[in-house]
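not sure who needs this but someone in the group chat was asking about Photosystem II lipoprotein Psb27 from Adonisia turfae CCMR0081 so here u go. i didnt clean anything up, its just raw.
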Amino acid sequence: MKRILSRLFAFTLVAILGLTGCGGDGMGADGLSGNYRQDTMAVVETLRTAIELPADAPNLPEVRSQARQQINAFSARYRRSANAASLSSFATMQTAVNALAGHYSSYPNRPIPAKLKARLEQEFKQVEAALRRESA
Protein backbone atom coordinates (compact mmCIF):
# COMPACT_ATOMS: atom_id res chain seq x y z
CA MET A 1 0.00 0.00 0.00
CA LYS A 2 2.79 2.40 0.90
CA ARG A 3 4.52 1.60 -2.39
CA ILE A 4 1.38 2.33 -4.40
CA LEU A 5 0.81 5.66 -2.65
CA SER A 6 4.44 6.61 -3.20
CA ARG A 7 4.18 5.89 -6.93
CA LEU A 8 0.84 7.67 -7.18
CA PHE A 9 2.32 10.74 -5.48
CA ALA A 10 5.34 10.71 -7.82
CA PHE A 11 3.12 10.32 -10.88
CA THR A 12 0.87 13.19 -9.74
CA LEU A 13 3.86 15.44 -9.13
CA VAL A 14 5.31 14.69 -12.57
CA ALA A 15 1.90 15.29 -14.21
CA ILE A 16 1.46 18.65 -12.46
CA LEU A 17 4.94 19.85 -13.37
CA GLY A 18 4.55 18.61 -16.93
CA LEU A 19 1.20 20.30 -17.46
CA THR A 20 1.96 23.62 -15.82
CA GLY A 21 5.60 23.94 -16.80
CA CYS A 22 8.44 25.11 -14.63
CA GLY A 23 8.55 28.78 -15.66
CA GLY A 24 6.92 31.20 -13.29
CA ASP A 25 6.92 34.40 -15.34
CA GLY A 26 4.95 33.16 -18.35
CA MET A 27 8.00 33.39 -20.59
CA GLY A 28 9.28 30.34 -22.36
CA ALA A 29 12.90 29.27 -22.43
CA ASP A 30 13.19 31.11 -25.74
CA GLY A 31 12.22 34.46 -24.18
CA LEU A 32 8.83 34.60 -25.90
CA SER A 33 5.55 34.75 -24.01
CA GLY A 34 3.35 32.83 -26.42
CA ASN A 35 1.22 35.89 -27.14
CA TYR A 36 1.77 36.50 -30.86
CA ARG A 37 1.17 40.25 -30.77
CA GLN A 38 3.49 40.88 -27.80
CA ASP A 39 6.18 38.58 -29.16
CA THR A 40 6.08 40.21 -32.58
CA MET A 41 6.44 43.69 -31.10
CA ALA A 42 9.31 42.53 -28.87
CA VAL A 43 11.15 40.98 -31.82
CA VAL A 44 10.60 44.11 -33.93
CA GLU A 45 12.12 46.27 -31.18
CA THR A 46 15.09 43.92 -30.77
CA LEU A 47 15.72 43.89 -34.52
CA ARG A 48 15.40 47.67 -34.76
CA THR A 49 18.02 48.01 -32.04
CA ALA A 50 20.33 45.64 -33.90
CA ILE A 51 19.84 47.46 -37.19
CA GLU A 52 20.33 50.98 -35.81
CA LEU A 53 23.48 50.11 -33.90
CA PRO A 54 26.61 51.63 -35.47
CA ALA A 55 29.18 49.25 -36.97
CA ASP A 56 31.82 50.28 -34.43
CA ALA A 57 29.63 49.80 -31.34
CA PRO A 58 31.38 47.77 -28.62
CA ASN A 59 28.30 45.64 -27.90
CA LEU A 60 27.55 44.83 -31.56
CA PRO A 61 28.34 41.08 -31.29
CA GLU A 62 26.04 40.64 -28.27
CA VAL A 63 23.21 42.57 -29.91
CA ARG A 64 23.55 40.60 -33.15
CA SER A 65 23.61 37.34 -31.20
CA GLN A 66 20.46 38.32 -29.33
CA ALA A 67 18.79 39.31 -32.61
CA ARG A 68 19.64 35.95 -34.18
CA GLN A 69 18.30 34.11 -31.13
CA GLN A 70 15.07 36.12 -31.29
CA ILE A 71 14.75 35.41 -35.02
CA ASN A 72 15.21 31.68 -34.47
CA ALA A 73 12.86 31.55 -31.50
CA PHE A 74 10.13 33.57 -33.24
CA SER A 75 10.32 31.52 -36.42
CA ALA A 76 10.37 28.21 -34.55
CA ARG A 77 7.39 29.14 -32.39
CA TYR A 78 5.05 30.68 -34.97
CA ARG A 79 5.97 29.10 -38.31
CA ARG A 80 3.81 26.03 -37.68
CA SER A 81 0.98 27.95 -36.00
CA ALA A 82 -2.05 27.96 -38.27
CA ASN A 83 -3.48 31.00 -36.46
CA ALA A 84 -0.34 33.09 -36.94
CA ALA A 85 0.42 31.88 -40.47
CA SER A 86 -2.89 33.24 -41.75
CA LEU A 87 -2.10 36.80 -40.57
CA SER A 88 -0.65 39.38 -42.95
CA SER A 89 1.57 40.66 -40.14
CA PHE A 90 3.18 37.23 -39.90
CA ALA A 91 3.91 37.04 -43.63
CA THR A 92 5.51 40.49 -43.60
CA MET A 93 7.43 39.68 -40.42
CA GLN A 94 8.79 36.49 -41.95
CA THR A 95 9.96 38.44 -44.99
CA ALA A 96 11.86 40.89 -42.78
CA VAL A 97 13.25 38.17 -40.54
CA ASN A 98 14.43 36.11 -43.49
CA ALA A 99 16.16 39.11 -45.08
CA LEU A 100 18.03 39.97 -41.89
CA ALA A 101 18.90 36.34 -41.10
CA GLY A 102 20.21 35.94 -44.65
CA HIS A 103 22.45 38.96 -44.22
CA TYR A 104 23.73 37.72 -40.86
CA SER A 105 24.55 34.28 -42.21
CA SER A 106 26.08 35.44 -45.52
CA TYR A 107 27.93 38.50 -44.23
CA PRO A 108 28.42 38.04 -40.47
CA ASN A 109 31.13 40.69 -40.08
CA ARG A 110 29.81 43.33 -42.47
CA PRO A 111 27.49 46.19 -41.55
CA ILE A 112 23.90 46.10 -42.75
CA PRO A 113 23.58 48.06 -46.04
CA ALA A 114 21.46 51.21 -46.04
CA LYS A 115 19.13 49.75 -48.66
CA LEU A 116 18.41 46.71 -46.47
CA LYS A 117 17.94 48.93 -43.41
CA ALA A 118 15.36 51.02 -45.26
CA ARG A 119 13.53 47.93 -46.49
CA LEU A 120 13.46 46.38 -43.01
CA GLU A 121 12.18 49.60 -41.43
CA GLN A 122 9.41 49.78 -44.03
CA GLU A 123 8.45 46.16 -43.33
CA PHE A 124 8.48 46.73 -39.57
CA LYS A 125 6.06 49.65 -40.05
CA GLN A 126 3.82 47.40 -42.15
CA VAL A 127 3.92 44.74 -39.43
CA GLU A 128 2.92 47.28 -36.78
CA ALA A 129 0.07 48.57 -38.93
CA ALA A 130 -1.13 45.03 -39.64
CA LEU A 131 -1.03 44.19 -35.92
CA ARG A 132 -3.18 47.24 -35.15
CA ARG A 133 -5.69 46.18 -37.85
CA GLU A 134 -5.74 42.59 -36.66
CA SER A 135 -6.32 43.51 -33.03
CA ALA A 136 -9.22 45.85 -33.83
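also The two ends are 58 Å apart (CA to CA). if thats useful
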